[in-house]
Structure formats: structure tokens, C-alpha cells
Design a protein that fits this description.
The complex is a heterodimer of chains A (284) and B (282). Chain A has a single domain, classed as 3-Layer(aba) Sandwich (Rossmann fold). Chain A is built from 10 helices and 10 strands. Chain A has a 6-stranded mixed sheet with strand order 6-7-8-3-9-10, with helices on both faces. In chain A, strands 2-1-4-5 form a 4-stranded antiparallel sheet, covered by helices on one side. The longest helix of chain A is centred in the middle third of the chain and has 17 residues. The relative contact order of chain A is 0.14. Chain B is α/β, with parallel strands linked by helices and 282 residues long. Chain B has 11 helices and 10 strands. A 6-stranded mixed sheet of chain B has the order 6-7-8-3-9-10, with helices on both faces. In chain B, strands 2-1-4-5 form a 4-stranded antiparallel sheet, with helices on one face. Chain B starts with a strand and ends with a helix. Classes of the chains: A alpha/beta (284), B alpha/beta (282). Chain A: It comes from Mobilitalea sibirica. Chain A: InterPro entries: AAA+_ATPase, ABC_transporter-like_ATP-bd, ABC_transporter-like_CS, ABC_transpr_CbiO/EcfA_su, ECF_ABC_transporter_ATP-bd, EcfA_1, P-loop_NTPase. Chain A: Keywords: ATP-binding, Cell membrane, Membrane, Nucleotide-binding, Translocase, Transport. Chain A: It is a peripheral membrane protein.
């Protein structure tokens, strides 16, 4: 069963002058078809302006398709009566944690979402506790968010989404503003939610080392889906990935360079351990 | 000795309940023409430190010398310092405001009181330095891509002809190619103009590829000030400070543990490749 189904999606940003005449049309997404199954962890890569954020905004009905259809858990996003159900099904986490936190105490911030859903307060507190536990921030529940590190703030933002019990979370470059440790915290939190809570994850990122854990990677370029596959399949095609203004993890790049220099290493090495094993086999 | 920090301390909200000692006893010398990296986790004091360099923040105690002069001297012209030490903030494209790319970059030099021609010449040069072609000069800065916008914003600082350029996270949010383009441009600028450059970043790979010397801030103190290779060879200490070494450094250490005779002070993919080939051909 698909959590997200996107069929022949096209989206146009239309710019108008003061009189309402069309000045320019920018087709940000063109003919995109994607299926994301329940419980999947899917990563989307793509250069700035490739359409990945525009795609993400279709999944919780911030944007509506110009052409094509987007279904979230079977609901057509174009149908207004589905709006609140869709927003509750697919939660979004954005780049800047400071723009997503509104309360002065961590637990109140996390409770804000479910409170707005009209949930009884006893259950709100249960959900707050469970969400904070899931992101490993329970001990900070009475702290002020502005004293937290970037990674911790972003985890609180994720807890705020989790408290609304979404079946799916869409993260749009959640680590772009974080230091290395903050990035690790957020990515391991997302992986745990996916594995333990069975939340479907759609992760948009520019950091290649964050997608190696995904079940599937989708590469976008100029509004189209240009590559799809497991991380191993994608990163085996180093030159093609780079042609879309992207990169591969350093370990993959090193293995690729060594292969070009004549060593016989397997394609698509993604981790230090794999690399060391491969080199060990080679030298014996 | 272009910039000297002599026992610099900075305390936020001194005397209130929110008092915080953000910068502790920093001694630091930056030489003319250096390309220095500054790393540290969020909240380690990096941004506070660089804001001292052009006088945006005044130290609670200590002295800062720029080209030999104490910037806290009564007669010192801070305005001049600010045109000589250019600071590019995070997400500088948020500060673009003019109706065309050219006008935006021209705004700084025009305000320095230069004559029109000189200001325009500087604008041309700055736009050329960051690789923004003439076809974009009349465009609205808001129509450009993320990477282009950022380069225009950097050009706005370059047009002031600073002697020192400080960049706070210049690649955050850019795609890998955009990141490489900007860093490459900065590196060329450094080589060709001899400008002193200080690069603040969260990307260990970026500093490893470009800078010769790294400053590491932790909890307000300057805890390391060493050549790039030395800093990354101390990766275990870096991890304690919520930082890391580039992935290749970890690869080389793992290989060494497996009995390969390879150097571990390696920080770039190319160095790693040469070292491994050397070892395997023995």
C-alpha cells in the first residue's frame, strides 16, 4: 500500500505583473511519478532549483498540482475536504529550527500541535512525553528551547510533528544549518522513528552521507526524476550523480578514484567498513 | 601581523541573570595573506569571535590590533576598519535589497564616498571576481539561483576592497556543485589578490580541502590553532567537542589498524588515493 503516490505531477510558478498579466511561467516540476510505500525511508537529492522542495510542499497540500495527481494515504490533495486529514497524515520539518519553535518551554512547544487538533489534555501530555522520548529529548522537557543546540532544537521540532501522530514525515533539508554532531543527532533520530515507530520518511538533503541509510534514493534535476534506486545503485554511478551538481560520499569517491587507477574494487562502496574489507581482500 | 587578539574576553548581558562568558582569554595572530579555517560546534563562540574582528562587538577586556593599531583607541576610526575587514554573514543573500544585481553590489562602494566612476569600476571587478557574468547585471537579484544570490552578496563586500574577508558559513544550504563553485572562487581570489581569508564552517571536508591553518573554538576558548593536518590528526579530541575529521581521515586510520602501512594525517581524497596506491604497489 502506498503512503504517497504522485502521478504525472507538474507544477508551474506563474508570475504576474501589477495588472495581473502573466509575466513568466516557470515549470518547477514536470512529469514526476513517484510511489512511496508505507514504512519506507526515501531520500530525495537534487541541486538548488531542481524542484525537490516544490515536490515536498505538494505532499501536505501547501501547493496543489498544476497537472497530475498527488495522493497521500489514498487521499487526493486537490480535494479541499481532505486538507486537514492530509496535514495530519504528513508532517513537515523545515531547514531552520528557529522558525519552527514557538513556545518558551520545550514540552509546551511539542504540545502545541495536538492541542490545536482538539485532543483532550490528558492525551496531549501522554503524546508529548512519548514524542520527546522518541527523539531523545525527554530530559529537556521543562527547558527553554532557546538554550538548546541546533540539533536539539531540530529534534524538538520533530517531536512537535510526532505528537500529531503523522503516518509520514517530510523533512526538507533538516540538517543544513547544523554542526556535524547536530546532523548526526537528527539523522539517527529520523532513522529510529522510521525503524521503531514505522513512520514513513521522505528526507530531502544536500548531504550525501545522510542518504546512505535510505531504502531508496530519488534524484531530481530540472523538475524531473532522473535517477531512482538503492543508495548503492545510485552511488555506483559517480559521474552521472556529479553531472546533476551533486556529489558522492568521500569513501565512495575514493574507491571510485582507485578503481580508475586500476584497482579492482566493488562498485558503490558506502561505508568505511566496506572500504577496509574490500581493500583487505584485494591485498591478500 | 595583520590582526592581533590580546587576551580578549567577552561577556554577554554582564551583571544580569543571563550573564554568559562567550569568549574567554583569546590570544590570536592572523598574518597578511593567510587562508584560515575557523571551526567549532554551534554556540562555541565562532560568530562572536569574528564580530570582534571588524569592531561590531567590543571586547569586555583585552586589546585588538589591526595593522599595528589598537582598534579600541579613542582616535581609531572604526568606520575605516569596517571597510578593511569585510564580514559576510550567514545567508548573506537575505540582505540583498536593490532592484538590480549591479546596483546592489554598487551600494557599498558608493557609500564609501568614492566618486561614481571608481565605485562602478569596483563593482565591475567584484562581480567578475565572483563569476557573475554581465548578462545578469541588470537582473533583479531575487531572480537568481541560491548560489548566484550568495555570490552577488559576497561581491557586495568585495567591492569595498577589504584587506581581510571573513565568511560565516558561505556554503550552508547550497548544493554540492554550488558549494564547490563558491569555495573554488574564494580560493582563486585568495591566490590572485593575496587577501587574508577567514572561513567559518561546519564542513570539515571544506576546510580540509582549502585552508592551511585551523582555529578550533570550544565553549568560548580557542583550544587548537595548528596546521590543518595536525588538527585533524587529533580527531578524537575533535569528537569530544562535537566536531569530526573528514571521512578520509577515518578511512586511513581504519586501514592503519588493519595493518596497512599508510600515513594517517590525510585529509583529502586525492592524498588518500596516492597513499593507498603507494602502499599497494610495494
Amino acid at each position: 500500500m502506498e503512503m504517497i503516490k504522485v502521478e504525472d505531477l507538474a507544477f508551474e510558478y506563474i508570475r504576474r505583473d501589477e495588472d495581473g498579466n502573466v509575466e513568466s511561467i516557470n515549470r518547477a516540476i514536470d512529469g514526476v511519478t513517484i510511489d512511496v510505500k508505507k514504512g519506507d525511508f526515501v531520500a530525495i537529492l537534487g541541486a538548488n532549483g531542481s524542484g525537490k522542495s516544490t515536490l515536498a510542499k505538494h505532499i501536505n497540500a501547501i501547493l496543489y498540482p498544476t497537472e497530475g495527481i498527488v495522493w497521500v494515504n489514498g487521499m487526493d490533495t486537490k480535494d479541499d475536504k481532505n486538507l486537514w486529514d492530509i496535514r495530519q497524515t504528513a508532517g513537515m520539518v523545515f531547514q531552520n529550527p528557529d522558525n519552527q519553535i514557538i513556545a518558551t518551554v520545550v514540552e509546551e512547544d511539542v504540545g502545541f500541535g495536538p492541542e490545536n487538533l482538539g485532543i483532550p489534555s490528558k492525551e496531549i501530555w501522554e503524546r508529548v512525553e512519548k514524542s520527546l522520548e522518541a527523539v531523545g529529548m525527554l530530559e529537556y522537557r521543562t527547558h527553554s528551547p532557546n538554550k538548546l543546540s541546533g540539533g536539539q532544537k531540530q529534534r524538538v521540532a520533530i517531536a512537535g510533528i510526532m505528537a500529531m501522530k503523522p503516518a509520514c514525515i517530510v523533512l526538507d533539508e533538516p540538517t543544513a544549518m547544523l554542526d556535524p554532531d547536530g546532523r548526526k543527532e537528527v539523522i539517527s533520530t529520523v532513522r529510529t522513528l522510521n525503524k521503531k515507530e514505522k513512520v514513513t520518511v521522505l528526507l530531502i538533503t544536500h548531504h550525501m552521507d545522510e542518504v546512505i541509510y535510505a531504502d531508496r534514493v530519488i534524484v531530481m534535476n530540472e523538475g524531473h526524476v532522473v535517477m531512482q534506486g538503492t543508495p548503492k545503485e545510485i552511488f555506483s554511478r559517480v559521474d552521472e550523480v556529479k553531472s546533476y551538481r551533486l556529489d558522492v560520499p568521500q569513501v565512495t569517491e575514493l574507491a571510485y578514484e582507485l578503481t580508475k587507477a586500476g584497482l579492482n574494487l566493488p562498485e558503490g562502496i558506502l561505508s568505511v567498513e566496506e572500504f577496509v574489507t574490500a581493500l583487505n581482500q584485494l591485498s591478500r | 601581523m595583520q590582526i592581533i587578539f590580546d587576551k580578549i574576553n567577552y561577556v554577554y548581558s554582564s551583571g544580569t541573570a543571563f550573564e554568559r562568558h562567550a569568549i574567554k582569554d583569546i590570544n590570536l595572530t592572523i598574518h597578511k595573506g593567510e587562508f584560515v579555517g575557523l571551526i567549532g560546534h554551534t554556540g562555541s563562540g565562532k560568530s562572536t569571535l569574528i564580530q570582534h574582528m571588524n569592531g561590531l562587538i567590543k571586547a569586555t577586556s583585552g586589546h585588538i590590533y589591526f595593522n599595528g593599531l589598537d582598534i579600541y583607541d579613542q582616535d581609531y576610526k572604526l568606520r575605516e576598519l569596517r571597510s578593511k575587514v569585510g564580514l559576510v554573514f550567514q545567508y548573506p543573500e537575505h540582505q540583498l535589497f536593490e532592484t538590480s544585481v549591479f546596483k546592489d553590489v554598487n551600494y557599498g562602494p558608493k557609500n564609501l564616498g568614492l566618486d561614481k566612476l571608481e565605485a562602478e569600476v569596483r563593482t565591475y571587478e567584484a562581480l567578475k571576481m565572483v563569476g557573475i557574468g554581465e548578462e545578469l547585471w541588470d537582473a533583479s537579484p531575487f531572480e537568481l539561483s541560491g548560489g548566484q544570490k550568495r555570490r552577488v552578496a559576497i561581491a557586495g563586500i568585495l567591492a569595498m576592497k577589504p584587506e581581510v574577508l571573513i565568511l560565516d558559513e558561505p556554503t550552508a544550504g547550497l548544493d554540492p556543485r554550488g558549494r564547490d563553485d563558491i569555495l573554488e572562487q574564494i580560493s582563486v581570489l585568495h591566490k590572485e589578490s593575496g587577501m587574508t581569508i577567514i572561513l567559518v564552517t561546519h564542513s570539515m571536508e571544506d576546510v580540509a580541502n582549502y585552508v592551511d591553518r585551523i582555529l578550533v573554538m570550544n565553549q568560548g576558548s580557542l583550544v587548537m590553532d595548528e596546521p590543518t593536518k595536525t588538527v585533524f590528526s587529533r580527531y578524537k579530541e575533535l569528537e569530544q567537542m562535537h566536531l569530526a575529521a573528514p571521512q578520509v581521515t577515518y578511512i586511513m586510520n581504519a586501514l592503519k589498524q588493519e595493518g596497512f602501512h599508510v600515513a594517517t594525517d590525510i585529509t583529502t581524497v586525492n592524498e588518500a588515493k596516492l597513499e593507498i596506491l603507494k602502499e599497494l604497489k610495494k
